[in-house]
């Protein structure tokens, strides 16, 4: 792919300052960490040489936590405390969980995100995911030999706001600085596109352990532009396993199973499914703890039959994504297959038939997402080399809307809008003297609130009292480059900033997160305040460096006074940055940020103007 | 989801055409728009300021948001015409002015009823055909808008046409929804 030549905005670092950055694929079944070394993206293996980390976490009564291969053998021996596929619970309520009757956990349903009761206490899916991320962070630090600048963490493109936020919270809990949440199929597109110099329209078909994504991208001249995305955040290999599991129970006429036997049988179902990808039939022989024997043969025909509707679902979502992109299959140059479940011949076949072309399987479907995430992390960390540069334009997967009268939804931001995106909506009061107002934000495509995902309720307070209908409250929805929504509100006639209280429907409050942070430190050797101090120092140094290079590249747009003011603030921050006085560093950072606000704005204007210059600069008043 | 309190805002006084350095007219070269859009995003996108301070990152997000907004409006012929007419001082009042020729309204209502019936009956063929016809009508309106705005400068007639177009585009959406419901 011909790479775009872009004038450096002045944020790049000198080449010798290589920053340590990692990409993490936090998968339902397997997780990975990768990094860019001497220009090559590589997956980092554990000390035994395993590239994958099974996404399994086991809690024991003594407070120890086993992750990955250490936890895996306990799946059926200690099912209540050994959590698998936790990604399916992220940002989800108790009622959202599919076939939960076959899950061994003691779910705790206190409204909001579901939690799990273990011998080590009640755990949120965010905490469980944080254990996986922490293991990968340590692996990354050990391999790279230093403190990480940050990580790119991938999420299914079809994840909604609550699921994304939960992932970001988990990263924070794991002590990772998140450079960006990146959509899994987009990460795969980066790895594929850069490796194969691909140009044109590509579809990324990603069927993993728990989620399905389809993204349509245009790759051109160093730009990865997502045109549309679709999928199902609860459709993956686990569901194929479940169909086989149900088939075994029915065929063998089994009585209700113990938790242990359920897990055992689920494991055999998965093995049979995977075996079938290379063979015409799979024998299933199991001795259950109840003494019953299972002795069956699963044939390709039966498997195809019992999973037909699942395959159909992936094709429906694919069709919809194409329609949203305004494209026909003839315009698709290639279909890149990602995720372990695309090894199933029936999937290969169905996709090939649908697109009328052979799908592309030249990348390792297990690793491509992590490799792409590492490339993006390297870019975002500022390690890009001249000429080796690209830009990613992604979209939101689901429409954002508001509840209006009668339980109806008014769409505010339509699905597949390029992010970042913002829309404002005006509201008024309907009672005299009304000073508060409640806004219910939902995500989804349907017209009824009851069938969309509830994201949060915002209470606006401090609206100046006026007669009914006189107040004009402008509520702005801003979706950032991570695909996360923020809401702000302002009363238009008085300019009064309304206070907002957020009640996430399936998320954690800031308080809960800081509690979890404290708790996690009380078990670990690391000291919370020391870590917070270190993070702040890194942040402060990053800020100083950024401003230093900005002054070099465009200090000329400042007056002598302005420059002096910035230099004073820099000097002050410099003098406290290595101290252990956190409040002082924080205050100096804030002061420096304030002192450079205007400089930043002017520089941005300047670079936009320069870009437009060439001919018509006089027409442009930015 | 969170609440964000931002005080720093870029100067957004330039109109969408000026921002993207395109002539202020209804005729538009889509490739050129795409090119200008991408090179602007390459400058202002938050991914390019991850290592800069919070203030700079927020600013980048606002700029990138602004550029996305401009592109999204200019890309759609209907939205572009609406925006352009407003810039020219001829607000088509799509929300308030619903007066429309009776014949047109009748025709649209009939089509809508047929679409609903086809949706209920799962008649994909009818929906596909209706979709194709309406797409042709819409494309024709797009051509007419260029003629009316850029050449004849007949903004009143253009405003009438934009209102019609909004109707047609809404119906097109409904057909799309129906197709989705029928085929899934
Ligand atoms: N040979 C095979 N045949 C069929 N399925 C397979 C095969 N190999 C792996 N799988 C399935 O692939 C799934 C795991 O794939 P992968 O590691 O890509 O998922 P993940 O990234 O953990 O999940 P997700 O992306 O959905 O969060 C499991 O369901 C596994 O059974
Ligand atoms: Mg995956």
Describe this protein's structure.
The complex is a heterodimer of chains A (622) and B (184). Chain A has 13 helices and 27 strands. Chain A has helices at 125-144, 161-173, 184-196, 237-252, 259-276, 300-306, 308-325, 345-355, 368-380, 510-523, 528-554, 560-576, 582-612; strands at residues 21-26, 30-37, 40-43, 53-54, 56-59, 65-67, 82-84, 106-108, 115-118, 121-123, 150-155, 178-183, 200-207, 212-220, 223-232, 281-287, 293-299, 334-338, 391-393, 400-404, 408-413, 421-427, 437-443, 453-461, 473-479, 485-491, 499-504. In chain A, strands 1, 2, 3, 4, 11 and 12 form a 6-stranded mixed beta sheet that branches. In chain A, strand 13 and strand 14 form a beta hairpin. In chain A, helix 11 (528-554) packs parallel to helix 13 and helix 12 runs antiparallel to helix 13. In chain B, helix 4 runs antiparallel to helix 7. Chain B is built from 7 helices and 1 strand, in the order βααααααα. Chain B has 2 domains: 2-75, Helix Hairpins, CATH 1.10.287.110; 102-183, HscB, C-terminal domain (Monooxygenase), CATH 1.20.1280.20. Chain B is globular and about 55 Å long. The model of chain B is unreliable at 1-11 (pLDDT under 50). Chain B is 70% helix and 1% strand. At the A-B interface, helix 2, helix 7, strand 19, strand 24 and strand 26 of A face strand 1, helix 2, helix 3 and helix 7 of B. Strand 26 (485-491) of chain A pairs parallel with strand 1 of chain B, so a sheet runs across the interface. The complex binds adenosine-5'-triphosphate (ATP) and magnesium ion. Residues 27-30, 87, 184, 208-211, 236-238, 270, 273-274, 277, 339-341, 343-344, 366 of chain A line the site of adenosine-5'-triphosphate.
Question: Would you summarize the structure shown here?
Answer:
The complex is a heterodimer of chains A (622) and B (184). Chain A is α+β, with helices and mostly antiparallel strands. Chain A is built from 13 helices and 27 strands.
């Amino acid at each position: 792919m011909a790479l775009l030549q872009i004038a450096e905005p002045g944020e790049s670092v000198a080449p010798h300052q290589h920053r340590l950055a990692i990409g993490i694929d936090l998968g339902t079944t397997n997780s990975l960490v990768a990094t860019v070394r001497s220009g090559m993206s590589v997956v980092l293996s554990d000390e035994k040489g395993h590239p994958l980390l099974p996404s399994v976490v086991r809690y024991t009564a003594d407070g120890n936590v086993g992750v990955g291969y250490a936890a895996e053998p306990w799946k059926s021996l200690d099912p209540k405390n050994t959590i698998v596929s936790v990604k399916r619970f992220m940002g989800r309520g108790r009622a959202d969980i599919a076939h939960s009757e076959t899950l061994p956990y003691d779910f705790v349903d206190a409204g909001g995100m579901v939690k799990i009761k273990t011998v080590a206490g009640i755990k949120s899916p965010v905490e469980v995911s944080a254990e996986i991320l922490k293991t990968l962070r340590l692996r990354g630090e050990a391999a790279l030999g230093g403190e990480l600048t940050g990580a790119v963490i991938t999420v299914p493109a079809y994840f909604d706001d609550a699921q994304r936020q939960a992932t970001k919270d988990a990263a924070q809990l794991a002590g990772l600085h998140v450079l960006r949440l990146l959509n899994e199929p987009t990460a795969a597109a980066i790895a594929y596109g850069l490796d194969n110099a691909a140009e044109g329209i590509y579809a990324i078909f990603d069927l993993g352990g728990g989620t399905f994504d389809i993204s349509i991208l245009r790759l051109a001249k160093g730009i990865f532009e997502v045109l549309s995305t679709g999928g199902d955040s609860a459709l993956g290999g686990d569901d194929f396993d479940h169909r086989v599991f149900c088939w075994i129970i029915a065929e063998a006429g089994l009585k209700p199973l113990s938790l242990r036997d359920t897990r055992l049988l689920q494991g055999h179902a998965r093995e049979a499914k995977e075996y079938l990808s290379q063979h015409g039939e799979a024998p299933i022989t199991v001795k259950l703890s109840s003494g019953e024997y299972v002795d069956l043969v699963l044939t390709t025909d039966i498997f195809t039959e019992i999973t037909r509707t699942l395959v159909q679902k992936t094709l429906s979502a694919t069709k919809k994504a194409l329609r949203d992109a305004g494209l026909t299959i003839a315009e698709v140059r290639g279909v890149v297959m990602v995720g372990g479940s695309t090894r199933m011949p029936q999937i290969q076949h169905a996709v090939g038939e649908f697109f009328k072309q052979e799908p592309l399987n030249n990348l390792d479907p297990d690793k491509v997402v992590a490799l792409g995430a590492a490339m993006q992390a390297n870019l975002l960390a500022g390690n890009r080399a001249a000429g080796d540069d690209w830009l990613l334009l992604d979209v939101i997967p689901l429409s954002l809307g508001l509840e209006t009268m009668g339980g109806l939804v008014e769409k505010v931001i339509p699905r597949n809008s390029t992010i970042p995106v913002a829309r404002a909506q005006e509201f008024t009061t309907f009672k005299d003297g009304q000073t508060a107002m409640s806004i219910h934000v939902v995500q989804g495509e349907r017209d009824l609130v009851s069938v969309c995902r509830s994201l949060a309720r915002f209470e606006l307070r401090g609206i100046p009292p006026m007669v009914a209908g006189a107040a004009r409250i402008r509520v702005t929805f801003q979706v950032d480059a991570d695909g996360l929504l923020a809401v702000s509100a302002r009363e238009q006639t008085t300019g009064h900033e309304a206070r907002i209280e957020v009640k996430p429907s399936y998320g954690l409050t800031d308080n809960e997160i800081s509690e979890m942070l404290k708790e996690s430190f009380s078990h670990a050797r690391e000291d919370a305040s020391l870590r917070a101090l270190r993070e702040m120092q890194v942040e402060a140094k990053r800020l100083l460096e950024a401003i230093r290079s900005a002054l070099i590249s465009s200090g000329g747009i400042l007056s002598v006074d302005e420059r002096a003011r910035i230099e004073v603030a820099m000097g002050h921050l410099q003098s406290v940055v290595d101290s252990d006085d956190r409040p002082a560093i924080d205050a100096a950072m804030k002061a420096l940020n304030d002192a450079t606000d205007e400089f930043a704005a002017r520089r941005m204007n300047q670079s936009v103007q320069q870009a437009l210059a060439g001919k018509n600069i006089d027409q442009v008043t930015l | 989801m969170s609440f964000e309190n931002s005080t720093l805002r870029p100067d957004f006084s330039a109109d969408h055409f000026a921002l993207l350095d395109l002539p202020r007219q209804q005729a538009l070269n889509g490739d050129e728009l795409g090119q200008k859009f991408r090179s602007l995003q390459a400058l202002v996108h938050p991914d390019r300021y991850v290592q800069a301070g919070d203030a700079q990152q927020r600013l980048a997000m606002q700029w990138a948001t602004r550029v996305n907004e401009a592109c999204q409006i200019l890309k759609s012929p209907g939205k572009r015409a609406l925006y352009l007419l407003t810039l020219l001082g001829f607000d088509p009042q799509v929300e308030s002015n619903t007066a429309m020729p009776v014949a047109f309204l009748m025709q649209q209502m009939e089509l809508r009823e047929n679409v609903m019936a086809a949706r209920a009956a799962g008649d994909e063929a009818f929906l596909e055909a209706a979709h194709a016809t309406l797409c042709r009508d819409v494309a024709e309106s797009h051509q007419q808008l260029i003629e009316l705005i850029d050449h004849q400068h007949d903004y009143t007639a253009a405003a009438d046409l934009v209102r019609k177009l909004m109707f047609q585009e809404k119906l097109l959406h409904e057909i799309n929804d129906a197709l989705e419901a029928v085929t899934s």
